[in-house]
Amino acid sequence: MIRIGMIGISEGNGHPYSFSAIFNGYDDESMKQSEWSNIYAYLRAKEKVDFGICGAKVTHIWTQNINESIKIAKATKIENVVEKYEDMIDYVDAVIIARDDWQCHREIASIFLEADKYVFIDKPLSLNMNDVLCFETYLKRAKLMSCSAIRYSPELDIIKRDINEFGKIKLIRGTTIKSWEKYGIHMLEGIFSVCPFTFRNIRRNICSHDSFTIETAEGFVVEIDCLGDKSPLTMRIEFYSDTSYFRADCMDSFVAFKRTLQNFIFMIENSIQPIETNQTVELMRILSEGMKRCGL
């Protein structure tokens, strides 16, 4: 049994609940009371057989708030709540850092990576390229994995299958919510999973939300719009070629999350990195360059 520790929580990110439930199943009443109604809705829509990843279980949890840790543990059947994340290090084989405030990722992950544990870091890995360079060694050694689950979105399966017959790409457009810092990675990861490109330049478009145009060596343009906190949920990626059009509304969170976690377990069991390291590093570079255009 692969024993997994769940670490952290951040505002607006319910991944500790959803990830843990995918591994362990969930307690209906406790999950209903969690205030994550969207997560409860898509978990409840699944059959019992849909839960669980063979040979793995979340056994420990730590968050910044012990009361929140207890709530997550009760909702997702986690047996052990710890007061410091270091307390789980001798009892787990791997950890999932399920918080998207990237500034803390290196500090937390380093303790486990140096102890030869496997680590999954929630998106984005880091927008500090010095941190990314430190992580690169562990990515190459298949000790560390980090991505947006949109990489494994089932809504992208068809275009991945048919990309060689799709025609010459002219434009790829990604539209999502929140900010470039938080959600730009969703669009980039999904695009790269279908059509990885060679980054040339990025410019910020002048408008009321985070909007960027990316120039590629392949000659097509990538446009990404992050519409802010008040916009209705959207995870849309559109592909335009000289002969075809394809739209993916990447809204099946459960399947995308489960595929992501299955790939993490695959990495642990086989010591094979499921994502090319240069892609992960390049995605962080594009995000970082975009932040610079914002003056950050």
From TrEMBL:
Residues 52-132 form the Gfo/Idh/MocA-like oxidoreductase N-terminal domain. SUPFAM superfamilies: NAD(P)-binding Rossmann-fold domains (SSF51735). One of its GO terms (molecular function) is nucleotide binding. Coiled coil: none annotated. InterPro entries: Gfo/Idh/MocA-like_OxRdtase_N, NAD(P)-bd_dom_sf. Transmembrane segments: none annotated. Pfam families: GFO_IDH_MocA. This is Dehydrogenase. It comes from Dissulfurispira thermophila.
